[in-house]
Amino acid sequence: MVDDRLRTPDAVRDAQRWTAHNYHPLPVVISSAEGAWLTDVDGRRYLDFLAGYSALNFGHRHPRLIAAAHAQLDRLTLTSRAFVHDQFADFCRELAELCGKDLVLPMNTGAEAVETAIKVARKWGYRVKGVPDGQATIVVAEGNFHGRTTTIVGFSTDPDAHDDFGPYTPGFRIVPYGDLDALSAAIDDTTVAVLIEPIQGEQGVVVPPEGYLPGVRRVCTERDVLLLADEIQSGLGRTGDTFACDHEGVVPDMYLLGKALGGGIVPVSAVAADADVLGVLRPGQHGSTFGGNPLACAVGTEVVRLLATGEFQHRSTELGARLHAGLHELVGEGLVAVRGRGLWAGLDIDPALMTGRQACERLAERGVLAKDTHGSTIRLAPPLVVTEAEIDEALTQLAAVLAG
Ligand SMILES: *Cc1c(COP(=O)(O)O)cnc(C)c1O
């Protein structure tokens, strides 16, 4: 254990020196990782309770994912979609089966999956539903986070994400999250889709009222509107099921996936839907140079296989119960409220005590890395390979931070 942190301050300063300040990272500099553990340049170890915003659901460098990546690196890495490669069919078929859908369209980042969903929904609206050209509307929720493109930030209600990036893409209607009447009232003959997170991660792991998602499903079906579920952060085991929608038996018309689909190794995203929806796209109408590349497919296929056994979903349920039980004991002891599902929790810290940022800085000093979402709210999302003892350790350190 190296006690005097000689390298860290310099390394933090260097890291900020040559980049735009679009992030405010905690003052740690990571150099290696395994499972739920990170090691910094001074040899200090930290429990990773952010897990790359859920991109690391299977932990750092999961042996099966690393092996899949290595094997693929030695054979073929990129072809573009101009040619077919031998990893493509398995990935698309196995992911489609996991989703219970006919078809998959692979992209790279989450924001690209969202853009894909918007384009497909609009085209479906014009070609299938019969919306007059150029009139399509999509209903979204207040407090949403769907990514950072110019179109997506236009319907963000977070001033940091939204302001100064206009003019904004028209065609979106924003309604309060969790209010079915408001959502229903926002739908008219021009509406092609409802785009929603089944749990709002960036908003602070906000779980909608019970019955809301089934209600959204019912309204969408009745009004001939596509339900687009952004499961980029909530999906792939995080909440204890494959998809957060599963908890209430809701099947969207399209799943939007990203983050953990890349196994913490490469950016992999996708949308999955039936042929009557994704089938509206013809050659030349959408694409991506790197989307569905051989390395991405090899890793993504292994991710799907890890999920197909249900083992990680089960871990998330079991260990999530332990995490939430421990967090609920801290309500009144520095925590005002706790929300979430599975290994995913949003905590509101008593604002009189400290900000979320301060809490995360103090947790880092105690060997646990987490991230504030805004104000005094922090999110905990350990990798699904975390152990009971590691959860207990994080809870002990959180209790110590809250006790001052
Ligand atoms: C992270 C995230 C995105 C955007 O993903 P990127 O890979 O960062 O573009 C979209 N939707 C949700 C719910 C997310 O959490």
Tell me about this structure.
This protein has 404 residues and is α/β, with parallel strands linked by helices. It has 2 domains: 8-61 and 311-403, Alpha-Beta Complex (Aspartate Aminotransferase, domain 1), CATH 3.90.1150; 76-308, Type I PLP-dependent aspartate aminotransferase-like (Major domain) (Aspartate Aminotransferase, domain 2). It contains 14 helices and 15 strands. The protein has helices spanning 7-17, 51-54, 63-73, 88-99, 110-129, 150-154, 159-162, 180-186, 212-222, 275-278, 294-308, 311-329, 356-365, 388-402; strands spanning 30-34, 37-40, 45-48, 103-107, 137-141, 172-175, 191-196, 226-230, 254-257, 269-273, 335-340, 345-349, 368-369, 371-374, 377-380. Helix 3 runs antiparallel to helix 11 (294-308). It is globular, with a radius of gyration of 21 Å. The two termini are 25 Å apart. The mean pLDDT is 97. Pyridoxal-5'-phosphate binds at residues 53, 109-111, 114, 145-147, 197, 201, 230, 232-233, 258-259.
> N-to-C terminal Cα separation, in Å?
25 Å
Tell me the major beta sheet.
7 strands, mixed
Look at the structure and give the CATH class of the largest domain. Answer: Alpha Beta
Q: What is the structural class?
A: alpha/beta
So what's the oligomer here? single chain
State Rg: 21 Å
Give me the side-by-side strand order of the main sheet: 4-10-9-8-7-5-6
CATH topology annotation of the largest domain: Aspartate Aminotransferase, domain 2
Bound ligands? pyridoxal-5'-phosphate
Shape: globular
